[in-house]
Amino acid sequence: KNEVEQSPQNLTAQEGEFITINCSYSVGISALHWLQQHPGGGIVSLFMLSSGKKKHGRLIATINIQEKHSSLHITASHPRDSAVYICAVRVSGGSNYKLTFGKGTLLTVNP
Amino acid sequence: GAGVSQSPSNKVTEKGKDVELRCDPISGHTALYWYRQSLGQGLEFLIYFQGNSAPDKSGLPSDRFSAERTGGSVSTLTIQRTQQEDSAVYLCASSFPGLAANKNSYNEQFFGPGTRLTVL
Question: Of A25, A28, A42, A63, which is least packed with CB atoms within 10 Å of its CB?
Fold first, then answer.
């Protein structure tokens, strides 16, 4: 079993829909990251969380440390949001640079 | 300013040949990372360089894999005697380092576009 599990693996939505992508992890962590990977490979960091909730534009990330679960929400989705969304964690007690990644969720937003 | 660049963007090679993949980090970033992304798999950590410290090579999958970082800037990942299972996208990232004394210290990693390696 992977230490970081994402669901769903694939998600198709219509423009304007509210999107939720889930991430569960089985280890103690010091932080959790959400990354976005567009076709062609480029990866950008969206959020780094250790507790609570963060918001940036139409993106919201939440984390529940006790339940070892995080969600990434996209409000009013748009075709340009189509990408792979990757959850990654930094394991507690480990190095402060090493990330353990989920397999990603492929989001397709149709116009 | 310029981001992380990688070359080549695509590489097709025959099984058994050696390949070299190059990464140019963002100027001033002393931390550099190599990752591998295989089809259907998550990103896999390969190696980490920080300044003049000994690199963390714990993610390299076999002794056919090696990496160098010359002058604290450009890095080269070398795969010797390539195998078909080496086919993947190899991604490089760079960052300012987190403070070694603070396990919670972390700086955002900036990723390059990757090199897609295909071993026939």
Answer: A28
Residue numbers in B near A10 (CB within 8 A): none
- Total residues found in chain A within this entry: 111
Angstroms from A25 CA to nearest CA on chain B: 14
Cβ neighbours of A45 in B, within 8 Å: 108-110
Over the range A36-69, which residues count as b (16 or more CB within 10 Å of their CB) and which as e?
bbeeebbbebbbbbeeeeeeeeebbbbbeeeebe
Q: How does pLDDT run across B5-55, given as a tens digit for each residue?
A: 999 999 999 999 999 999 999 998 989 999 999 988 889 999 999 888 899
Option in B43, B98, B99 nearest A101 (CB): B43
pLDDT in tens, A47-93: 999 999 999 999 999 999 999 999 999 999 999 999 999 999 988 87
